[in-house]
Write a structure and sequence with these properties.
Helix content is 43%, strand content 20%. The protein has eight helices and seven strands, in the order ββαββααβαβααβαα.
Length: 176
């Protein structure tokens, strides 16, 4: 893990983790100007060398695919790029705590760490979520992945409270 460790009530993270999360939140915020705004962004870095491998945002709308969450899209693209099903040696950053589907995918991919911004409970305030913490999913397996967060929670919450995103949530609620 690069950088000196920092700790809060929710886990251990580094100043580099915080810097990467702020950058990911800023990059994800750019989606607010696209036809498919989303608060869900993910980026994968080499755990030891810190090199960015892949980043993605949620593609559920444009792909018409309920499994195309930001984390899964980033994992799929990274594995395709590396021509392997294993992401051992990599850390995934995500603007929101992974849902159980994404947390399981992180485990199956063999990621070293998952670092998240907003919590799954934060996300549930704005839309439907399966509120099982990612750390709980990780505890229930013999696969190993460190889950750290929330990191830069306020910067990531700003994605959910953005006025553009609020209009999207209102449309989604009206369509149900």
């Amino acid at each position: 893990m690069l950088g000196a460790p920092l700790a809060d009530a929710d886990g251990i993270y580094t100043a580099i983790d915080a810097e990467r999360m702020r950058a990911l939140a800023a990059w994800t915020m750019k989606s607010m100007d696209s036809p498919y705004p989303t608060p869900f962004g993910a980026e994968i870095f080499g755990t030891n060398d810190g090199v960015s491998l892949m980043r993605a945002v949620n593609q559920v709308g444009p792909e018409h695919d309920p499994s195309a969450h930001g984390e899964i899209v980033a994992i799929r693209l990274a594995c395709r790029k590396l021509q392997t099903g294993s992401l051992r040696g990599y850390t995934l950053y995500t603007t929101c705590e992974p849902c159980p589907m994404c947390a399981a995918c992180c485990l199956w991919a063999g990621l070293d760490r998952v670092v998240y911004g907003a919590t799954i409970t934060d996300a549930a305030r704005f839309g439907h979520q399966i509120e099982i913490p990612a750390a709980e999913v990780a505890r229930r397996t013999d696969l190993h992945c460190v889950v750290a967060g929330p990191v830069e929670r306020e910067a990531c919450l700003a994605l959910f409270t953005n006025p553009t995103m609020q209009k999207v949530y209102a449309r989604w609620k009206a369509a149900r």
